[in-house]
Amino acid sequence: MNNYELTLILNPDLSTKFDDFQTKFEKTLADINFTINKLENIGRRQLAYSILNHNKGHYAIFQIEGPSESALELESKLKYDTSVIRHLLLKVDSPSLEDSLLLIESREAKKAPQEEEQSQEKPKVTLAEQNQAAETVAKDESKDGE
Q1: Do 89 and 4 meet the contact criterion of CB atoms below 8 Å apart?
Q2: pLDDT tens digits, residue range 122-139?
Q3: Alpha-carbon distance 123 to 119, whole Å?
Q4: Does residue 89 share a domain with residue 116?
Q5: In contact, 128 and 136? CB cutoff 8 Å
Q6: What pTM was estimated for this model as a whole?
Q7: φ/ψ bin of 53: left (φ > 0), alpha (ψ from -120 to 50), beta (otherwise)
Q8: Where are the alpha helices (DSSP H) in the chain?
Q9: Residue range(s) defining the domain that contains residue 132
Q10: Does 62 lie in the same domain as 116?
């Protein structure tokens, strides 16, 4: 059995229906003797260039294991699947069970707007209040020096 990493870029309209695609694709993999070791559902991302008139794509990365004869069959099934706009199947020595950089980056991008909202909720200090605080500190320091 060989280990493979399969990266899929799906039609972005399927983002809401990814669970349906996943169950159908898992059945397809099982039919051709592949097992899934890990799945990373990255989500929608901007593409570097337009593919089939799509500027965004839904990314998914599968760590799979199966016979090399079935890899060709999987390639042909992916080629004719209309929901897949790009795919890349790589043979790897050992499956990487760590999170991919793409997944980590997408998590950080989701956290950034939440942190920004939280920072906006903090009370803002006006320039006059900052100046008043600075004057108070300066007076306190001059009293300590006397």
Answers
A1: yes
A2: 555 566 666 666 666 666
A3: 9
A4: no
A5: no
A6: 0.69
A7: left
A8: 18-31, 68-79, 101-121, 127-145
A9: 105-145
A10: no
